[in-house]
Automatic annotation (TrEMBL):
GO biological process: carbohydrate metabolic process; pentose-phosphate shunt
Family affiliation: Belongs to the glucosamine/galactosamine-6-phosphate isomerase family. 6-phosphogluconolactonase subfamily.
Role according to the record: Hydrolysis of 6-phosphogluconolactone to 6-phosphogluconate.
Class of enzymatic activity (EC top level): hydrolase
Pathway involvement of the protein, from the record: Carbohydrate degradation; pentose phosphate pathway; D-ribulose 5-phosphate from D-glucose 6-phosphate (oxidative stage): step 2/3
Organism, scientific name: Paracoccus lichenicola
Catalytic activity: 6-phospho-D-glucono-1,5-lactone + H2O = 6-phospho-D-gluconate + H(+)
EC number: 3.1.1.31
Taxonomic lineage from the root: Bacteria, Pseudomonadati, Pseudomonadota, Alphaproteobacteria, Rhodobacterales
Assigned keywords, A-Z: Hydrolase
UniProt name for this protein: 6-phosphogluconolactonase
Start and end residues of each Glucosamine/galactosamine-6-phosphate isomerase domain: 7-221
Pfam family, one: Glucosamine_iso
Length: 223
C-alpha cells in the first residue's frame, strides 16, 4: 500500500484527478479503450469536478460506479445522480456510461445483465474507492448478507447485497474485479477515516472490507 498525504482537500482533489487522468491517457495510448470505476457517497465530488475537465479521449472511456443504492436515479441518495451532476459533464460528458441502476424492483433482477455489460471492460484501468467510517468500501459492508461471497476470489462480478448499515438494498462490484484493476486508488478524508484505515490494516476483510483492496492501492488522504 502506498499512502499519500496532502496539505488540504483541494490539493488532494487536483492531484488525484490528475493522476487518474494520466493513467487513463496512458491506457488510451496503448489500447483502444479504457475503463474507470468510481465511488459514490460524499467524498469524491471535488475529484469528479476536476476530472470532468481532463483533456483525454473520453469517448473511448467507459465509466461505471463501483456500487449503487437501489433508489431512483433522481433520488438524493443515488450515486448515479452524483456522477451525472459532477463527473459526466464538461469533456467527460462524452464518456460511455454504464448505469448500475436499471429501475427493476430489486437489484437481484439486474445483476446478471449488469455483469455482462461490465465484463468487456475488464481489467478496469482505474478503480477509485471510497471508504466509510465502518471500513466498508463500494457496498461491501461489515455484516452484509453476502459479504463473504463478495470477497471470494470466485465472486460473481456484480452482487446484490443488503446490510444493516446501508439504508437500502445495494448492488456492488466485488473483490476480484475491483482488486485486479490496473490502478487502484482509495480516497479518504478527515481524522476518523484515517483512524479507520489504520484499524482496517490490522483486521480481516470480513471485519474490514477495505482491507481486501489495500495491498495494491494508493491511499489518498487529507485532513
Ligand atoms: O455508501 C457509500 O459509502 C461509501 C463512502 O462514502 P462517503 O460518503 O463516506 O465518502 C462510498 O464509497 C460508496 O460508493 C457509497 O455507496
Amino acid at each position: 500500500m502506498a499512502f499519500k498525504e496532502y496539505p488540504d482537500r483541494e490539493m488532494l482533489a487536483l492531484s488525484l484527478a490528475d493522476q487518474i487522468a494520466s493513467q487513463l491517457a496512458q491506457q488510451l495510448r496503448t489500447g483502444d479503450t479504457a475503463s474507470l470505476c468510481v465511488p459514490g457517497g460524499t467524498s469524491p465530488t471535488p475529484v469528479f469536478e476536476t476530472l470532468s475537465g481532463a483533456d483525454i479521449d473520453w469517448d473511448r472511456v467507459t465509466v461505471f460506479l463501483g456500487d449503487e443504492r437501489w433508489v431512483d436515479g433522481d433520488h438524493k441518495r443515488s450515486n448515479g445522480r452524483l456522477l451525472r451532476r459532477h463527473l459526466l459533464r464538461d469533456r467527460a460528458a462524452a464518456a460511455n456510461y454504464i448505469d448500475l441502476y436499471t429501475g427493476t424492483d430489486t437489484p437481484d433482477e439486474a445483476a446478471p445483465a449488469l455483469a455482462e455489460a461490465i465484463r468487456p471492460h475488464l481489467p478496469i484501468t482505474v478503480v477509485l474507492l471510497g471508504m466509510g467510517n465502518d471500513m466498508h468500501t463500494a457496498s461491501l459492508f461489515p455484516g452484509a448478507d453476502r459479504l463473504a461471497e463478495g470477497l471470494a476470489s470466485d465472486a460473481p462480478l456484480v452482487l446484490p447485497i443488503r446490510a444493516e448499515g446501508a439504508e437500502e438494498p445495494r448492488i456492488t462490484l466485488t473483490r476480484p474485479a475491483l482488486a485486479d484493476a490496473m490502478n487502484v486508488h482509495v480516497l479518504i478524508m478527515g481524522p476518523e477515516k484515517r483512524e479507520a484505515l489504520e484499524r482496517a490494516k490490522t483486521l480481516d476483510p470480513i471485519q474490514a472490507p477495505i482491507r481486501a483492496f489495500l495491498d495494491n492501492a494508493t491511499v489518498h488522504w487529507a485532513e
